[in-house]
Amino acid sequence: MERVLKDDAVEEKGERARMASFVGAMAISDLVKTTLGPKGMDKILQSTGRGRNVTVTNDGATILKSLHIDNPAAKVLVDISKVQDDEVGDGTTSVVVLAGELLKEAEKLINMKIHPMTIIAGYRMALECARDSLLKKTMDNKENTDKFRSDLMNIAMTTLSSKILSQDKEYFAELAVDAVLRLKGSTNLESIQILKKPGGSLKDSFLDEGFILDKKIGIGQPKRIENAKILVANTAMDTDKVKIYGARVRVDSMSKVADIEAAEKQKMREKVQKIIAHGINCFVNRQLIYNFPEELFADAGILAIEHADFEGIERLALVTGGEIASTFDNPESVKLGHCKVIEEIMIGEDRLIHFSGVAMGQACTIVLRGASEHVLDEAERSLHDALCVLSQTVNDTRVLFGGGWPEMVMAKEVDELARKTPGKKSHAIDAFSHALQAIPTIIADNAGLDSADLISQLRAEHHKENSTAGIDVITGTVGDMQKLGIQESFKVKQAILLSATEAAEMILRVDEIITCAPRRREDRM
């Protein structure tokens, strides 16, 4: 038979291609499965690059982002967890696990000789049904501020309970809710700055209004400024010494060298004069400021901060309402930043500069303390998840109970649909309800509970009207989610459901995998 493809290209057809994609997807979902739920475990990721960085995490998206994967179907799952992370911030593990379970169920059906398109049609029907059943059960307290705040607290505590911060979750939930309510409904988390300072314990973390810049105040400059006018700049302030690269200057006496230096100094002095002419009392620069200009600023009573990192600068310009300037010839066109007080504060051993009363009222800084860099990184990821979910919930205020309750509600409705539907589709719809029940099963398994017993109890509970039963991992029984205050955001659940189903459909449609030949290196000898 004539070959169509090049020598090293590989193609997998039919059964084998489907097997390869199923196996890859299931391997990925098994990998992150153990991190699901309040009793989920963490993974250590060690890079083989320079420095051998170690990350300790149980955030699904972080784990999957760090993997180098060869299997194409597994890549689809990695992508959906990334999108989930960008879109709603939480549920990155659940979305992969649900997609993996849907594929596991689909594999059984394909072995029963049911066509993938039939399975997809059944999944589509089941998805609509599941989503409608959730919509009917959502609660919305946006009219009542106190109730809504307690909803937000519950959602934050539920999100944090599966993370490293679960020990002090009330404390951190309070921090996150305060920070998000300051945003007044915007989902732009740029104005919440998270500063990590090793030392102390996680409990020592705090929320501070305003902005904290991780820099020290220069020598002989005012330590406290009220009603500050801030010029944020990105300009070179280090040209007061002769530094003429690659050029040669011939002089016939030492005094000429002194003239050149004096001219350089004069140039610098003029630049500083121009900057002072803006009527500012605080100058923040992205680049270095040498001793001479620093001296001039100190004489003028201006606080000069050098070498502020780029992220710090951008965010500082954003929260103080200024713009980043690099030329100073026409002061009237430069937008200055304003804040009420600039002062030096101490956090642990370090001195930092605190800007309070900034123009952008919603800006705040969360300072995280912790035992080591790894703990801090993981705490930041956990807090970021909570902040994302909360800012989404402030916009879409519908909430659900958690702890496997939504999955059971959906499974019950989908089950009923399967009984009503004639034809082969009903098998697929039934499989969808099994896949949904897998999430509470895994939550129970991770906590070392008898999942078969618990899930059957839970199913029985859910056959009563308006049941609020879910898994209480702490006592290891079926508990009342309303009393325990375990709640989740509707938006997150919906995103999990839609992404997982679409990803599973996409992998089901595959019947051939073609791997192209690698490019050969030519011998150039």
TrEMBL record:
Principal place of residence: cytoplasm
UniProt GO molecular function: ATP binding; ATP hydrolysis activity; ATP-dependent protein folding chaperone; unfolded protein binding
GO CC entries: chaperonin-containing T-complex
Tagged with keyword Cytoplasm: yes
Top-level taxon of the source organism: Eukaryota
Localization (cell): Cytoplasm
PROSITE patterns reported for this sequence: TCP1_1 (PS00750), TCP1_2 (PS00751), TCP1_3 (PS00995)
Keywords: ATP-binding, Chaperone, Cytoplasm, Nucleotide-binding
Matches recorded under InterPro entries: Chap_CCT_beta, Chaperone_TCP-1, Chaperonin_TCP-1_CS, Cpn60/GroEL/TCP-1, GroEL-like_apical_dom_sf, GROEL-like_equatorial_sf, TCP-1-like_intermed_sf, TCP-1_chaperonin
Function text: Molecular chaperone; assists the folding of proteins upon ATP hydrolysis. Known to play a role, in vitro, in the folding of actin and tubulin.
Family, similarity comment: Belongs to the TCP-1 chaperonin family.
PANTHER family: CHAPERONIN (PTHR11353)
Protein name, UniProt field: T-complex protein 1 subunit beta
